[in-house]
Structures are given as structure tokens and as C-alpha cells.
Design brief:
Alpha-Beta Plaits; alpha+beta; about 80 residues; single chain; about 25% strand; three-stranded antiparallel sheet; 2 domains
């Protein structure tokens, strides 16, 4: 009796795990990948403010050969 109960619990646990894994895979595959567009601007704070107002966000900055700000936003 005890072995049968243990076996039943293991089978139920495996079925739950398999169902949960399948559900998680379905959730991940159904979501679309986000597409991004990028632009680089000079270190001009007014331009950065204008860009931020229309959805651009700062993701990187560089000081190689001047100053550049890398921006991205969803397409």
C-alpha cells in the first residue's frame, strides 16, 4: 500500500512537471521578439532631451574621437 501511494505521488509529480514545462515553452515561443532601432547623436543635451521625449533611451556612450551617445527605441 505504501509503495503504491509513493509511486502514485511520483507519477503525479512528473505529470505536473511535464505540464508546467510544456506550458512554459508555449509561453516563450508565442511571444514575439522586440525589434529595436538605434541612432547615435553627439553629446548635445538638448538633442538628448528631444530624443527622450519621443521614446529614445540612452544605452551607451563613447568618447572615441569626440563624444557619442547611443540610443535605442522599439520599432
Amino acid at each position: 500500500m505504501k509503495n503504491r501511494l509513493s509511486l502514485s505521488l511520483v507519477v503525479i509529480a512528473l505529470l505536473c512537471l511535464a505540464g508546467w514545462t510544456g506550458y512554459a515553452r508555449g509561453q516563450r515561443s508565442s511571444s514575439a521578439r522586440q525589434a529595436w532601432e538605434y541612432k547615435v547623436i553627439n553629446c548635445d543635451m538638448e538633442e538628448l532631451d528631444r530624443s527622450g521625449a519621443v521614446g529614445w533611451e540612452l544605452v551607451a556612450s563613447t568618447t572615441n574621437q569626440g563624444c557619442g551617445l547611443w540610443l535605442k527605441r522599439p520599432k
